[in-house]
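Tip: read the tokens left to right.
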């Protein structure tokens, strides 16, 4: 099972590494991902491991752990848990520390180095000055005792962390200085000389400066969860429900499935539901990023946290509590932040050995300087500088802060990354495989062309067509009716309506016979001229379905219906290619329709006539040539989405819990695919910057602190400056990650111009396989059979027949003609006509005859 835990007591990357190691030691644990940023971990385990055993392992390691949700309010998504409670505590500690540090520094630095004035009695007593510094520094150490408790507790558990380094550095300064004070009491004659050997100010300054850095870091980390908190703030607090006919106002979390609730203008929808009555426009920008409101009527779905703008809506609750779209989005963003990206592994490996390595270096530095003839105080200062300048936090935060900010930014734009790994993988995409229907196209047929005959008005042709199709449930008929409604046409009634299977429909209008259907029907009624036949074939070549309409003995014209491309698909394809990503269309539709759509949007590679089960094999083979992202609806394309390096579900709307997808796009815009890749690349760039800074800082800072520049330039780094540098390093990493909030993934960037990889040769082979074979290249064993078929009405019917026949073993080629209602089948083996007939009739079409 997969369980999320809350972890307390972690202060740096070494802590998270030790927690991970402790949990992996529990038998039955398969994987664990610890997030320092969210103080949580996700564990995948099975028997004999249990949640209690996992918590016990973490506690034994010196940290705290509990199953998420057991504390606080018990809610799955607890906003209070995301509030920044750490910064106020740190600010309080910092204020008191600074209040005591200033008089300490005045004496230790101002008076002793620059002769700043102090009371004469005090100035003449070196021992009093030393005790004054000891007292103030001791109080500051007590105020910041958390460093010592955490640091030495971790050391005792053989898991030293950043607090260990700080505690050791500060305590070493304090203990050495205290020893010097005892020397002063023994030799009061030379006490004034020993004042310059005291490091009390370093012990106090190290703790104070680290607290400054921790405060800045905590404040910046608090901002990284702003996206999640803003999503939680969207959730309405109350709902107006109807119970026993009486309206009641209750808490939104008390709404149950099946409850009827009312949403008035200006109010937020409390839970997910379906509209029972009323019409309005609903602003869904909070969930999808789409600025334009969406019209809602009876039967429409509404989501929690969207805002009703105009009319009142009466709805029935379908998803409540943690199952609402809003809560699913919050969970995705939280999980993305709680998981680890593969790029973080190198930082994790370094963090696991970082602190012991630094302690070893500090000890070596101490003895090297002693052997070089320097006194113990000087040598100790170099060792302390090494301890306090080293920063495993910068390493540990380099990846998770960028992931957190990036996933939150994506959520604001309707792009949801399920895990940190998917956020990283999306940016490495080289091929994007696109399903046609619903991805490149709108997913339902609509009227594209209205071609009236000479002397016939466009309105008369559309009116007759809508009247004839009024009683038909065919998707093409629905498209014609919707077109007539959009143009506000008055639709007359049709008498004696009759469906003509495989041909169309017939009825009577104004005592005349009205006909609507395919070319075969018009040819049978001797109404199809050569010119109209050619127009129909031209429309068919464009992937459209021509429907002819006649009244009496006159052909009124033809109306073409097709699944049209989305308005922004062509721009999306162009953006992908400019980013160096090659788009490939993979569809089950026939080759002619697929190529027509591809030509409209600029896709060069098309693989058509692919069965749903075969899409996965195409994606698998393509992944051998580069990183592949598969874009589909998340249901029919589930195997291919799972097989791809990145599965992207587009147009999820209210259904964001798509298991097969790694990335979920709330809108139906194909441009969001480019935006997701663009955002991922920007996050990766930010992570690389953070990792570079973290490694560069430690690689440069540790040698300088050890005194590498002293022999050459005489430059030495005091422990105080080392602590200041350490404080700023983590702050710089977090601040750099916060810059991602200024990035707009929807806008193309000039620096993104790259050349796509060349298309693999096997794709051309799969495309060419659908081309008619040249007669001279056909083997002698090939046979051709022509099946005459009734029942085909549109290009979808053609696709069904092609798939059915191609699924028969031994079929080499299939060419289906809608106009002639026939299928020409080329056989590579001897197949009986009964087998071919059964394949077609299993799809509910009728084979009237077969020519051999």
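Filled-in amino acids:
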């Amino acid at each position: 099972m997969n369980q999320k835990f809350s972890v307390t007591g972690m202060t740096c990357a070494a802590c998270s590494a030790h927690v991970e190691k402790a949990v992996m030691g529990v038998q039955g644990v398969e994987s664990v991902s610890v997030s320092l940023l969210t103080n949580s971990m996700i564990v995948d385990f099975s028997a004999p491991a249990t949640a209690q055993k996992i918590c016990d392992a973490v506690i034994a390691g010196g940290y705290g752990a509990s199953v998420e949700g057991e504390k606080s309010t018990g809610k799955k998504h607890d906003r209070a848990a995301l509030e920044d409670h750490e910064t106020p505590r740190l600010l309080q500690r910092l204020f008191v520390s600074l209040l005591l540090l200033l008089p300490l520094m005045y004496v230790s630095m101002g008076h002793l180095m620059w002769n700043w004035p102090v009371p004469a009695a005090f100035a003449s007593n070196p021992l009093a000055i030393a005790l004054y510094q000891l007292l103030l520094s001791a109080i500051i150490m007590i105020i910041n005792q958390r460093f010592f408790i955490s640091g030495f507790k971790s050391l005792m558990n053989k898991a030293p962390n950043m607090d260990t380094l700080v505690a050791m550095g500060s305590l070493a300064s304090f203990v050495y200085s205290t020893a010097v004070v005892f020397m002063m009491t023994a030799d009061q004659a030379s006490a004034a000389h020993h004042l310059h050997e005291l490091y009390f100010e370093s012990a106090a300054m190290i703790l104070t400066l680290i607290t400054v850095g921790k405060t800045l870091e905590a404040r910046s980390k608090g901002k990284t969860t702003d996206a999640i908190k803003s999503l939680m703030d969207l959730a309405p607090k109350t709902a107006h429900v109807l119970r026993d006919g009486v309206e009641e106002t209750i808490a939104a979390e008390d709404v149950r499935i099946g409850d009827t609730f009312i949403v008035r203008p200006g109010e937020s929808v409390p839970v997910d539901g379906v509209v029972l009555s009323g019409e309005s426009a609903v602003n869904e920008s909070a969930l999808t990023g789409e600025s334009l409101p969406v019209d809602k009527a009876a039967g429409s779905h509404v989501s929690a946290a969207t805002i009703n703008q105009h009319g009142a809506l009466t709805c029935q609750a379908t998803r409540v509590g943690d199952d609402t779209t809003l809560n699913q989005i919050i969970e995705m963003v939280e999980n993305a932040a709680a998981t680890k990206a593969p790029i973080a592994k190198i930082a994790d490996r370094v963090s696991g050995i970082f602190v012991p390595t630094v302690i070893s270096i500090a000890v070596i530095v101490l003895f090297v300087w002693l052997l070089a003839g320097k006194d113990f105080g000087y040598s100790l200062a170099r060792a302390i500088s090494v301890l306090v300048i080293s920063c495993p936090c910068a390493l540990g935060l380099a990846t998770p802060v960028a992931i957190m900010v990036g996933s939150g930014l994506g959520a604001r734009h309707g792009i949801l990354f399920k895990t940190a790994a998917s956020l990283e993988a999306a940016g490495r995409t080289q091929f994007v495989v696109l399903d046609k229907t619903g991805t490149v196209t709108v997913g339902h047929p609509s009227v594209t062309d209205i071609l009236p005959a000479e002397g016939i008005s466009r309105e008369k042709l559309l009116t007759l067509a809508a009247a004839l199709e009024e009683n038909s449930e065919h998707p093409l008929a629905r498209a014609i009716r919707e077109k007539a409604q959009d143009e506000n046409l008055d639709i007359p009634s049709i008498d004696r309506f009759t469906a003509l299977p495989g041909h169309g429909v017939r009825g009577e209008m104004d005592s005349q016979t009205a006909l609507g259907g395919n070319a075969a029907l018009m040819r049978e009624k001797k109404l199809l001229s050569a010119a109209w036949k050619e127009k129909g074939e031209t429309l068919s070549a464009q992937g459209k379905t021509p429907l002819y309409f006649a009244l009496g003995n006159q052909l009124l014209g033809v109306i073409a219906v097709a699944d049209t491309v989305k308005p922004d698909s062509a721009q999306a394809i162009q953006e992908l290619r400019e980013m160096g990503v090659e788009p490939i269309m993979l569809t089950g539709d026939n080759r002619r329709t697929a190529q027509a759509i591809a030509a409209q949007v600029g896709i060069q590679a098309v693989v058509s006539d692919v069965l749903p089960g075969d899409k996965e094999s195409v994606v698998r083979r393509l992944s051998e040539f580069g990183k592949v992202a598969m874009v589909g609806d998340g249901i029919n394309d589930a195997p291919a989405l799972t097989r791809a390096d990145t599965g992207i579900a587009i147009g999820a709307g209210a259904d964001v819990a798509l298991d097969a997808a790694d990335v979920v796009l709330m809108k139906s815009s194909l441009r969001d695919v480019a935006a997701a890749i663009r955002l991922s690349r920007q996050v990766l760039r930010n992570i690389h910057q953070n990792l570079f800074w973290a490694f560069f800082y430690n690689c440069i800072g540790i040698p300088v602190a050890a005194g590498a520049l002293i022999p050459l330039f005489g430059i030495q780094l005091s422990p105080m400056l080392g602590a200041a540098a350490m404080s700023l390093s983590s702050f710089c990493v977090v601040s750099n990650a916060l810059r991602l909030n200024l990035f707009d993934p929807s806008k193309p960037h000039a620096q993104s111009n790259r050349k796509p990889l060349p298309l693999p040769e096997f794709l051309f082979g799969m495309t060419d396989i659908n081309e008619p074979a040249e007669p001279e290249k056909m083997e002698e064993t090939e046979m051709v059979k022509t099946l005459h078929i009734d029942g085909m009405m549109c290009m979808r019917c053609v696709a069904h027949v092609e798939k059915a026949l191609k699924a028969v073993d031994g079929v080499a080629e299939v060419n289906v003609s809608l106009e002639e209602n026939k299928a020409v089948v080329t056989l590579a083996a001897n197949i009986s006509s009964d087998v071919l007939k059964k394949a077609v009739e299993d799809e509910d079409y009728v084979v009237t005859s077969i020519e051999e």
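The radius of gyration is 37 Å. The longest helix spans residues 671-706.
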